[in-house]
Amino acid sequence: MGPGVLSALADLVLPRCCAGCGLPGAVLCARCARLLAAPHLASPRRFPAGFPPTVAAAVYAGPVRPVVNAFKEQGRAELAAPLGTALALAVAAVRLGVDGDPPLLLVPVPASRAALRSRGRDHVRELTRQAVAELRAAGVVADEGRVLRRRGRVRDSSGLSAAERRANLAGTFEVTGPHRPAGDLVVLVDDVVTTGATLTEAARALQVAPGAAGEVVAAVVAATPRTPAGPPQATPASAGYRPGTVLHHDLDRLSRSRGRD
After folding, report:
1. Contact of 139 with 113, CB cutoff 8 Å
2. Quick check: 45 and 226 in contact, CB under 8 A?
3. What is the pLDDT of residues 142-189, one digit of tens each?
4. Cystine design at 135: which of 58, 94, 140, 223 (Cβ 3.0–4.6 Å)?
5. How would you classify residue 227: left for phi > 0, otherwise alpha for psi between -120 and 50, otherwise beta?
6. Which residues pair with 104 in a beta bridge?
7. Quick one: DSSP state of residue 48?
8. What residues are paired with 103 via a beta bridge?
9. Phi-psi category of 114—alpha, beta or left, where left has phi over 0 and alpha has psi -120 to 50?
């Protein structure tokens, strides 16, 4: 019995549907896939001091939210491909804001022990590996660096304010070894950014590590949209980063939205 027959039988028992909108036929329909190809600077409502320049491939709202949660919480491993491609797009976009054409070191934000126990996997690492493969296929020199680890215990961040999240995460991350080959651009990667507390603390750990030097930027699959309350806030960019260049560039094959079975 060939793989095509097995796939057809599986569809009869467990029909495929889009993880975003529920449309039958594919794990991610073309319309929802396009929502994962809209890179923009992440803009938390209140920027934590030290928040790194961060590009998100999508807005964490509408169909994007159930797509990310289906992969993250429901174990839909087939979504690693489109979400990893979205992460690669965000990485390629944030790289445009730095000088030169440096090799990339993608550093996944490590999961907590509790999250690893409950999910049985490190979903951010899965996305990182997929993103590295996509970037290499596009001709970008990229690698994964598992150089961060968590220490101590933190409370569940659900329901915490932005200030409480920052306090909860203080001192959480540490660098496990030399983290930056000479000339590499370190890109922190995660699935979603909300308040920015996690990326800020992880970036701080990388920047204060022995031998650390240069820029640390970040890329995520999706970012929580800003609420309309209050006046717009400018993104505080670190020295040398030019956020205006991110959105005005042909990102070539990585920007082609596509659904994948």
Report:
1. no
2. yes
3. 999 989 988 755 545 555 555 555 555 555 888 886 656 667 899 999
4. 140
5. beta
6. 142, 185
7. P
8. none
9. alpha
